[in-house]
Please model this.
Amino acid sequence: MRFISKNRTITHFSANMEPITDVRLQETITVETHDCYGGQIDSETVLRPDINLETMNQATGPIYVNGVEKGDVLQIDIEEIELDPRGIMVTSKGLGVLGDHIEEPTTKILPVKEGRICFKEDFIFPVRPMIGVIGVAPASGSVHCASPGDHGGNLDTKDITIGSKLYFPVFQDGALFALGDLHASMGDGELDGTGVEIGGRTTLTVRAVKGGTLEAPVVETADSFMFLASAKTLDEAIRKGSKHVVGHLQQELSLEFQEAYRLLSMLCDVRISQIVNPLVTVRIVVPKELLPRLFKK
Amino acid sequence: MRFISKNRTITHFSANMEPITDVRLQETITVETHDCYGGQIDSETVLRPDINLETMNQATGPIYVNGVEKGDVLQIDIEEIELDPRGIMVTSKGLGVLGDHIEEPTTKILPVKEGRICFKEDFIFPVRPMIGVIGVAPASGSVHCASPGDHGGNLDTKDITIGSKLYFPVFQDGALFALGDLHASMGDGELDGTGVEIGGRTTLTVRAVKGGTLEAPVVETADSFMFLASAKTLDEAIRKGSKHVVGHLQQELSLEFQEAYRLLSMLCDVRISQIVNPLVTVRIVVPKELLPRLFKK
Model:
């Protein structure tokens, strides 16, 4: 199995970025990634205000997928996530929903071993590995890896984890995907501004869905399709995601708008992925039985 | 077991409201409730603009709990929810997150039978019963039953269901609780502005926690304590709930602010209950093992 090292990364997802390598459809690869600070925080004496934020959330790639064209849907199956032996959680003035309560920044290094995070003595928690940044080349321009969007990017969605399938709209031939910013654990919202930030290796398989239509990334779990939507405010993101879901329900089930809207309200959950990035991200969780033919065109 | 009929209801939770009856601690009672429209919508020809909104979300009660005093915590264990044989879903211009797409209001009556909701032919879904409105007398003034707050009220939280335990701050002697507005099903967010609105009978047991401190309602499920927070915007509600949770984590685990803030971000989820009432409601979901002594004073 091919191994893509973390020595070539991007700081932006750009429409015209150059691939570092290519893969074929159905190929399984392992991609090594930095923690979101790019290794700059190597002890508890290095604080967030000390580091260069321009390279934050750098992603390994981009990787060109042979056989995927603009207008297709790129499918990425997450097979495995192996974590480095230590994670990082910083606090800093203004960071997260209660950041105004913080005066002095702090850095905490958390040992991660045998599937467990040592927060402190008697505070040991199981890892819940996830990928913070994953995306494809956008339709135009350039988006910093710290921000999410319709191309993916810093989605910080905890369901982007082992066993999930991800679907991205393909805006450029070859899709040009990249990933980074693993977390050993993070709650919905990422409320203090960080997860347990960590480097590692993700094993994934790439596939293509031809003839699909997708506005923004979707995560498939055992039970659900989760439609991700990123926007400036939670209200905007919820509205955007709701529109996408109602559109898919109407199309797939041949329903009028108001009937699809009722199903949305009765059976679908809006969940918050993160509220601490330049755009916030929500997901609308749709039970799979409502969309049995999605991505099976 | 005592049965409290739906013939005496309130439209407001008020500090000085008069009880319709009283119960003793540990008593189990069944409370009958109207659907949120108070039975005004009895066919698909009755539309939302036709009805009187002043009595919307009326709640059966208030019920005085003997032995509960101001400053205690009222515990309500939800044992059973029996639903009437039909639910209602309306749409109307401006209602819900995509209400601007609606011109003509519609009403849909949904048969509910043997634990299933018939949405239409080939669209049959299991019921997920929940209580929309449940609360106690507020500290002062009067709050319409259509609005949520620290006293409870229109919380529209789907985890307020069979098997859950609810905890309310007690602002007045006897707590004076009331409930109504059942839903046969509703997704997080209540995105079109309604669940499957329905009447029914809730069986519950009342208890008291002495010496507890609580700012706003908490729902206990099998795995979690969910701290509810209602406010004008999602951002405010999330901030308010986060403060409550960090305070409880600090107190119970003897942690400094920044350590409790990290646990919040690493292990707790923010979830949206509803975004369609006069105040929105979120819940911060805390794994039970983080607060093993909560309500066990």
